[in-house]
């Protein structure tokens, strides 16, 4: 938590002692090592409150997040009237007391990096990255919170405030060992550079950074500027292709207040949208969506409806939320069937469209697919899991072996407040979180059906070639990037497991919303 920036007319504190960072001259001499603060220095915002809030929400509960939000005025008072260390101690107590260490680590790995990465300042990152031999981030934020981001995205060591644990190290007590501010930052830098060769460059943004900056060979102050240009995503050392958490936007106090205050109303709105549209004939739902505030844009030419002698099409789409097959059904104005490898009885019972499980036996599945296509259109999501970023995961090739009647469908979902997908949360709530957004939206683009020469049966192409071709066609339409990442990669990153579905007594697959199951 940091104090609000000074008025625009005031000179940034510390500039009289250390020059501002824009005076840094990269060509003056080689610099190999650097030590820098995080909030307000490498990050444009000087406030760490949004990241504490995300931990309280995602590793704790909405009640804990609300308690932290209500404590915000007291935190600001402590920071300005008492000390930065006192504010950090209260922040840690409200945020971490009683939380399981593994839950906090999961949030630090899957939720926080995206928000941190979006706030990296371009100017200070250029200075920090230029010191390629050794980079150290010295921050008052808890090391468990920032460590994953700092190591993976900034390629730096991290020294942060350490938290006390109990229950054999399984839970946090909420107490800190010592807030890493002022002289303690200097002590840590001296210990990390124990050989006596202090960092070539020191970067900070507040008076409590002066102690460690003073022992660096040269040091620069970072003037407060919340509108400072951000570093391009591809300039960082990693990218957040996979991320978790329900909140779409960085929860600054105003956005955090809206997300929590709107939640009960949003849930009621979601219930109305779901159950009202369930009562409407599918051919009319596209119009009732508009009446209930759901934006649905349909582009391209939908495949013709199946009829005797002309079977349905296999609609192959990218996977944005658990609602993808339902949205395609609404866009077509007719029922579809969703094929999957894994479907629970509960999902089958509540899904408004038919969900059919395949067997992994290619011959049997081909027969099953032919029968399903004779009845109507079939939807498949060959990525096997949702991806929030503008990227497509590797497509499973199985669909290409089952039929040549393939129609690629490009999907994009618009979610302004809550994400309608999760890797660690309650997946049955995913559709409701999507509909809880004030103005949720979907874009559905029906692309040209594959020509016979582009398929396995008619063109003799391999299933992998066909799958890769469909992936490229959809990615080009959406302006997305094709990747070779898989469902397993996502779950290892976000949940620490391979995402394997337990057949009995376990959780459903990752996209356990109505009608959208894994296919790889």
From TrEMBL:
<comment type="similarity">
    <text>Belongs to the GPAT/DAPAT family.</text>
</comment>
<dbReference type="GO" id="GO:0090447">
    <property type="term" value="F:glycerol-3-phosphate 2-O-acyltransferase activity"/>
</dbReference>
<dbReference type="Pfam" id="PF23270">
    <property type="entry name" value="HAD_RAM2_N"/>
</dbReference>
<dbReference type="GO" id="GO:0016020">
    <property type="term" value="C:membrane"/>
</dbReference>
<keyword id="KW-0472">Membrane</keyword>
<dbReference type="InterPro" id="IPR002123">
    <property type="entry name" value="Plipid/glycerol_acylTrfase"/>
</dbReference>
<protein>
    <submittedName>
        <fullName>Glycerol-3-phosphate 2-O-acyltransferase 6-like</fullName>
    </submittedName>
</protein>
<dbReference type="GO" id="GO:0016791">
    <property type="term" value="F:phosphatase activity"/>
</dbReference>
<feature type="region of interest" description="Disordered">
    <location>
        <begin position="500"/>
        <end position="520"/>
    </location>
</feature>
<feature type="transmembrane region" description="Helical">
    <location>
        <begin position="256"/>
        <end position="276"/>
    </location>
</feature>
<feature type="domain" description="Phospholipid/glycerol acyltransferase">
    <location>
        <begin position="313"/>
        <end position="414"/>
    </location>
</feature>
<dbReference type="InterPro" id="IPR056462">
    <property type="entry name" value="HAD_RAM2/GPAT1-8"/>
</dbReference>
<keyword id="KW-0812">Transmembrane</keyword>
<feature type="transmembrane region" description="Helical">
    <location>
        <begin position="76"/>
        <end position="99"/>
    </location>
</feature>
<keyword id="KW-1133">Transmembrane helix</keyword>
<dbReference type="GO" id="GO:0010143">
    <property type="term" value="P:cutin biosynthetic process"/>
</dbReference>
<keyword id="KW-0808">Transferase</keyword>
<dbReference type="Pfam" id="PF01553">
    <property type="entry name" value="Acyltransferase"/>
</dbReference>
<dbReference type="InterPro" id="IPR023214">
    <property type="entry name" value="HAD_sf"/>
</dbReference>
